[in-house]
Amino acid sequence: MLIVAGEALIDMTPTAHHGATAYVPHPGGSPYNVAMGAGRLGTPTAFLGRISRDAFGQLLRRHLAESKVSLEYVKEGQELTTLALVTPSESGEFFSFYCENTADRLLYPEDLPTTLPPQAALHFGSYSLVLEPGASSLERLMRREARRRLITLDPNVRPFLIPNREAYLERLSGWLEQVDLVKVSQADLEWLYPGESLESVAQAWQKQGPVWVIVTRGGQGAFAVRDKEIIRVQAPQVQVVDTVGAGDAFMSGTLSWLWQSGVWARAALESLSSEQITALLHFAARVAAITCTRAGANPPWRDELA
């Protein structure tokens, strides 16, 4: 089983309507999208987080259930649902977050499960590891379960929510020591380490703890780093509608490939061959590419990959 921990929110995405711009609500949040994508790909998945009881919260719960994601580890809150306003720009989508005292960030240690299934993997990421009090609660869970099960991370950096880059980098270093696999985007690395080579940063990260570090580069494909080995793949060519949720779809594709291949522990991850990593990257890139062909974070179902 895969347990995905983090935020659940509503992306307000723009659409043209009678000559004006209207905003349409789409369920989202990076970990939420990863859970949804993995569930649709046939990986037994549960979401761990806090969701509002409001109308948007009901939409979030329904969308998870429809994507075959278990709600066993979901807590409910009276607070409102976080909203993310999505604004397209030449460099991609820009997100403005409305998340003060919202349900998903108010996850406390007592909301965490005391035990998890022995073979369950954990995935963390995005602003749920930044905004308190939920960030410290999830860090506690990460530290508690590190090296006891497969743990993966996608930082999915949101500069708008990070007032101090140096403090964030220090916190990030602590996560890297705990996790077994990291996926990070080129945009994330360029904001965190301006002017530095993507490959050298990925290699430095890998030395801190992860078995592999995967870097996604949008339409330019992706590469994986282990020690001095770098494996690259190209992105499939598709007609892009938008890129919202593409990185999350890549992550869910990565996790689903690992699940279906029986690679569900750190030792198994360490034993992967270069050919297997190449196959993983191609599969994940295909899942992401399909997601880019439609509006909003709407990852594909397993039968769409046939």
Automatic annotation (TrEMBL):
Residues 3-301 form the Carbohydrate kinase PfkB domain. GO terms for molecular function: fructokinase activity. InterPro entries: PfkB_Carbo_kinase (IPR050306), PfkB_dom (IPR011611), Ribokinase-like (IPR029056). It is an enzyme of class 2 (transferase). Pfam families: PfkB (PF00294). Keywords: ATP-binding, Kinase, Nucleotide-binding, Transferase. Its EC number is 2.7.1.4. It comes from the Bacteria. Belongs to the carbohydrate kinase PfkB family. PANTHER family: HEXOKINASE FAMILY MEMBER, PSEUDOURIDINE KINASE-RELATED. This is Fructokinase. It comes from Meiothermus hypogaeus. The gene is scrK.
